[in-house]
């Protein structure tokens, strides 16, 4: 091939760091200019206020010009296209062009061959879709995007560059005309694998998706599932994958105070032997197990004031069921030999007991990291997390031996 290659600069950056291993995907990256898929405005997290994303012009900001050709994700939409700030700033990232090394890792995990048909969930900017077209041909690529504005921009860019995949504006969790594909690639995270994905992939086919079993504990993990003749799908966690959640899988952006009423008559007080600090343990295997075994869990930790030396290290830790009306409070005090922590709870779920049971399951299994964990989805949608092999299912149903007791 002669003449300049549109993606040469990014391909050189990625290959020099070992991020591309498959020559076929290397050729695809060489052929596609990532810059062509980035809109005029991108949003960058404010260094002074990490909860705010401010708009920056793509063509005049030198940092953004550099990031386009390096291993950075860039936000291309906030607040579902309606920035809440008067200056165009936003609070919630809702679409992005993903980190290139992660894009390639997910594409290589598909393990495609010539002639295979791929369903992509989450068209986004269209960059991923263009890489799929380069590798497999336009006629073998179907891409679904729920946001009409994002989809139209991607369609225009792909058309301008000569790509003609099948593009649909639809909910990616729903079936696509009853068709079956050889591969399914999701560029949005899900809390639960949609049942339609299993029926959309032929037996022996592969699903690669970010999976986010629990909010507030870690970014999503990347899973690679193989669909079985029974209609189930099973596979291992293969890495980290920081992706935005599918819209129907998001939680409302409300604080812990929206769930907690310490003055309600249903509140009970007592003690728990479950260490309240366990919910903030960042061990990557534990965060997956906790999110899966205690579904809907959210937490907030309120630390003792820095100048309160008598209470140094103490914290009030709240845990809540974001899908229901249960919550609990644990008062952490760093004392050696203590037999419990002051606690309160309300609602039908005993969250401290569930957290304790999940911790016990993790301990019994030898504190597995993500590299030992896998996931099986049954045809009826049941999610089973396992360690080492699919028969070793991890369960938190065993009662925690030190249930919260009256004070």
Automatic annotation (TrEMBL):
InterPro entries: PCMT, SAM-dependent_MTases_sf. GO terms for biological process: methylation. Keywords: Cytoplasm, Methyltransferase, S-adenosyl-L-methionine, Transferase. CDD domains: AdoMet_MTases. Pfam families: PCMT. The keyword Lipid metabolism does not apply. The keyword Endoplasmic reticulum does not apply. It is found in: Cytoplasm. Its EC number is 2.1.1.77. GO terms for molecular function: methyltransferase activity. Its main location: cytoplasm. Belongs to the methyltransferase superfamily. L-isoaspartyl/D-aspartyl protein methyltransferase family. This is Protein-L-isoaspartate O-methyltransferase. It comes from Nocardiopsis rhodophaea.
